[in-house]
Amino acid sequence: MHDVHLTGFGTYVPDETVTGEQIADRSGIPETVVVEKMGIREKHVCLPDDDHVSDMSVAAAEEAIADAGCSPGDLDLVLYHGSEYKDYVVWNAAADVAERIGADNAYAHESYTLCAGAPVAIRHTAAQLRTGDIDTALLLGASREEDLVDYDNDRSSFMFNFGSGASAMVLESTAIEGVEERSCARVLKSAAVTDGRFALDVILPAGGSKHPPSDETVSEGLHTLDVPNHESMKERLAAVSLPNFLTVADDALEASGYDRTDLDFVALTHMKRSFHEHLIDELGVGSAGSYYLDAFGHAQSADQILAIDAALDAGDGPTDGDVVLFLAAGTGYTWAATVLEWRA
């Protein structure tokens, strides 16, 4: 069995931004609530004709490949784990990105766990790398689901933090000579749990086979995200979310030979500020061991690498020998975690 290393990563966010003040003006929610409670000072968004999911993925991929010191031709796999809302409906974005970056030797496919996608994609890909099925993989996550947010729908207000951006990771096995010398982090174990009782709580009502697109679905505004039973979901989720976050964190740490006392940095999905602070306190790292994405918002499964990158730029990121946890949750509802040992 081979070890697996994260050898490079990259990010991309569009230049256009929306501030907390602008979100407050559009939604009618007080600015202090948007900025302080929801945790959105600003977020990056895409203009209608620019920065599609494939474009953002290509930009992040090229940065990650350069950071890893490999070439597109070295890739055996290109995996897209980002938003299902892409350039086209029923379309393999991974194949398009592989073609555009010149990954001619890679096969390309997609994996969806919504906002929990990064830890799950690492888990699946690391398993292939450890067995020798592949040697080098590129993982991509991107989102512009901000397009799907209706600021007049207060049932979906917890999604007003949705922003746009992309991340990419290169994972390599130690079957390749010199991988450890190029390593950003050693990839250890993962854990995940799904509670399918939430499967129908967050939906795009129209556009699928149950409600195909039509003049009627467009006129009724059924092509934006909705939470049909908002109060019910809020009550049920409050009872299980923290325990499930902590369960997957503890399980991944234990499988990796660690526990919470060893943890140095948590790269966490963007969420309301109070829950972020409570969760990192429970994990024992506090604000010094995390990065809050209040200048980015929530870019789905790109969040973990966006947080790492921003923290390193600020001089507050993980350092050599640190135990790092990628921790995420996605509607459906899945909670997932992956442990890494950081390298300078």
From TrEMBL:
<dbReference type="GO" id="GO:0006633">
    <property type="term" value="P:fatty acid biosynthetic process"/>
</dbReference>
<keyword id="KW-0414">Isoprene biosynthesis</keyword>
<dbReference type="InterPro" id="IPR016039">
    <property type="entry name" value="Thiolase-like"/>
</dbReference>
<protein>
    <submittedName>
        <fullName>3-oxoacyl-(Acyl-carrier-protein) synthase III</fullName>
    </submittedName>
</protein>
<dbReference type="GO" id="GO:0008299">
    <property type="term" value="P:isoprenoid biosynthetic process"/>
</dbReference>
<keyword id="KW-0012">Acyltransferase</keyword>
<dbReference type="InterPro" id="IPR013747">
    <property type="entry name" value="ACP_syn_III_C"/>
</dbReference>
<dbReference type="Pfam" id="PF08541">
    <property type="entry name" value="ACP_syn_III_C"/>
</dbReference>
<feature type="domain" description="Beta-ketoacyl-[acyl-carrier-protein] synthase III N-terminal">
    <location>
        <begin position="114"/>
        <end position="180"/>
    </location>
</feature>
<dbReference type="InterPro" id="IPR013751">
    <property type="entry name" value="ACP_syn_III_N"/>
</dbReference>
<feature type="domain" description="Beta-ketoacyl-[acyl-carrier-protein] synthase III C-terminal">
    <location>
        <begin position="253"/>
        <end position="342"/>
    </location>
</feature>
<dbReference type="Pfam" id="PF08545">
    <property type="entry name" value="ACP_syn_III"/>
</dbReference>
<dbReference type="GO" id="GO:0044550">
    <property type="term" value="P:secondary metabolite biosynthetic process"/>
</dbReference>
<keyword id="KW-0808">Transferase</keyword>
<dbReference type="GO" id="GO:0004315">
    <property type="term" value="F:3-oxoacyl-[acyl-carrier-protein] synthase activity"/>
</dbReference>
